From TrEMBL:
Stated name of the protein: MerR family transcriptional regulator
Coiled-coil regions listed: none
Domain HTH merR-type: 10-78
Any one GO MF annotation of this record: DNA binding
InterPro entries: DNA-bd_dom_put_sf, MerR-type_HTH_dom, MerR_fam
Methyltransferase is among the record's keywords: no
Pfam families in UniProt: MerR_1 (PF13411)
Organism, as annotated: Rhizobium setariae
Keywords: DNA-binding
Amino acid sequence: MEKSPDAFRTISEVADDLDLPQHVLRFWETRFPQIKPLKRGGGRRYYRPDDVELLKGIRHLLYDHGYTIKGVQKLLKNNGNKFVAAAASGDLATMEALAAQSEEEEEAPVPKMIIPEDDQIVGRPKAPSSRRFFGLIGNGEDGHELGAGGQQIGKEDRALLQEALFDLLECKRLLDQVR
């Protein structure tokens, strides 16, 4: 019997869902104050759906994108929980909207996505050259988006630019490791 999407999850259910050991989730609670599971008698943890989404985002950034804990902490501090949760699903539009919202709330502008500094990217895998970033290609739509200077940017061009950005970040990571 499946639980409803709104149901609280135990630590074992979340660990199985994220393919992580339970002790990693307990450790992350010490490093990310945003993770606050409900604790019942005997210390049993129950994770809310928002907690699970945040954990998915943290896992995605740490394991799939090679961020360090310090780098994810910085993203959470500057952009909030929803931004990191959106990173797990690859929801670029939500991430950009949340980053823009955090810019409006603070006087000093915050970059849309913080590019990790120095040692904050470690062991990032090389992206396959599938030209599919955040679901922009492959859905059969040839929609255009308005770019800088009022020019139209096609989805394929945007995907190619994102792939080039990823390759540049990979080069930077490799150069930083050599230093």
